[in-house]
Amino acid sequence: MQRKPAVNHRGNPRALVRATCTPLASIFGSGFLVMVPILAGAVGAYAVLAMALVCALAFCVGSVIRFNIRHAEPALAASPKESTLAFERSSDLALVMAYVISVCLYLHILSAFVLGSLHLDTGVNEDALTTAVIVFITVIGVTRGLESLAALEGIALAVTLVIIVLLIGGFALHDLHAWRSPAGLTLFHPKPHSLWEILTIVAGTLIVVQGFETTRYLGDSFQADTRIRASRWSQLISTGVYLVFIAVALPLVHTLNGKYDDNSLIHLAAAASSVLVAPLVIAAAMSQFSAAVADTLAATGNLAEVTHHQLKLRFATLLVGAGAIALTWSADTLEIVALASRAFAFYYLLQCLVAISVSQSAWQRTLFATVAVALAFITVFAVPAS
């Protein structure tokens, strides 16, 4: 899609930081809240390795997105090939659907953590609270616009990072005390899974590292070089944080007694220190609400552009809200995690096809095709954690 020329921010560190905040906020949006119970339940003590593999695949996909920022965007702004334009338009539609699913996911997680802290986390209660928040966002979007609520993104990211640091510190301190105790660290034994089950469950966690692609759509604000560096830095930072986070959380997983729920992180935080629970719930509520608002804005903006602005933003907001509500009552949180992973994998797959269509190098096309095959596997076979 054609965009206005961006202000020249080359060599401006502040611009790079601002550009990095958007993808980083999206990546941390829900990942750190759900990834430990999902991976621990699927692969047990190999959760760190599984997370590393997911992050490695995500970095390969991020390389495709960065290639498209550098090469596909100029081609699309000039005289693109018919295939390039078709793949790009198809990916825009796929991204709208993925954003609708992610809005539902973020608010499901918000409900799970808020209600879990009150011991009211039943399926009906989670669906009802999720619906109420979606209705609130939709009404604000239709009547006043969501730009004022979107300003929460920076605050939510700061709070989330602080809470992640506190959790890592709390978990690490607990691990150290347990290691020094006579009993030592307690190992846990997850439910056995076949190799196929492990592959399909881990494939369903792609959503926890999703968000780096947002730099693809910041062309009105930042130049290509800045967006490419922001995408890369957001992935490197989040990968390091996620690997450390899982490593220090694993020794507490035995306290879940084999029950891996969408809000199990509350129980892990409580096992490390009761003072961590309230900040965790506040961070979960803020980050999920902010991420839901951001994805609602992104989905409505994409819908308006795909329809050449024939569909007004307020009606696009209604469609996004209605779709999210319908999904809310059709699936639980872990099912939506897998569905969101499949939806974003399909979008990334189409972006791989965009890259292949503009690439002039045979080895690059081979690499992009290899990544596309992995994404096709996720799109077709990813399943919820059981």
Number of strands: 0
Whole-number mean pLDDT: 88
Helical content class: over 70%
The largest pleated sheet is described as:
none
Sheet/helix structural class: mainly alpha
What's the Cα radius of gyration? 20 Å
Straight-line distance between termini? 40 Å
H/E order of the elements? HHHHHHHHHHHHHH
* Uncertain stretches of 5 or more adjacent residues: 1-9
Oligomeric state of the chains in view: single chain
Beta-strand level of the residues, as a percent range?
under 5%
Offer a quick outline of the entry.
With 386 residues, the chain is mostly helical.
Descriptive notes:
The protein has 386 residues and is an all-alpha fold. Helix content is 74%, strand content 0%. The protein contains 14 helices and no strands. It has helices spanning 13-27, 31-43, 47-77, 82-117, 123-143, 147-150, 152-180, 195-203, 224-249, 264-272, 277-306, 313-328, 333-358, 362-381. The chain is globular.
Topology:
Layout (H helix, E strand, L loop, with lengths): L12 H15 L3 H13 L3 H31 L4 H36 L5 H21 L3 H4 L1 H29 L14 H9 L20 H26 L14 H9 L4 H30 L6 H16 L4 H26 L3 H20 L5
Helix pairs in contact: 1-7, 1-9, 2-3, 2-8, 2-9, 3-9, 3-13, 4-5, 4-11, 4-12, 4-13, 5-12, 7-9, 7-11, 11-12, 13-14
